[in-house]
Amino acid sequence: MKSDSEETAASGSAPRARIDWVAEQSRLLREIAKEFTRTQPFAGLTIGTGIHLEAKTVALLLTLQAGGAQLVSTGNLNTTQPDAVERLRARGVRVIGEATKDAKEHAGYLAQVVAAKPDLILDNGGDLYVHYLKSPYGTLRGGTEETTSGRMRLEPLREQLRMPILVINDSPIKQFAENEHAVGQSTLESYMRITNKTANGERVTVFGYGSVGRGVAANFRGGYAKVFVVERDPVLQLRAHLDGFDTAPREESLGSADLIITVTGA
Question: What is the CA angle 132-138-142, rounded to 5?
Answer without folding.
Answer: 60
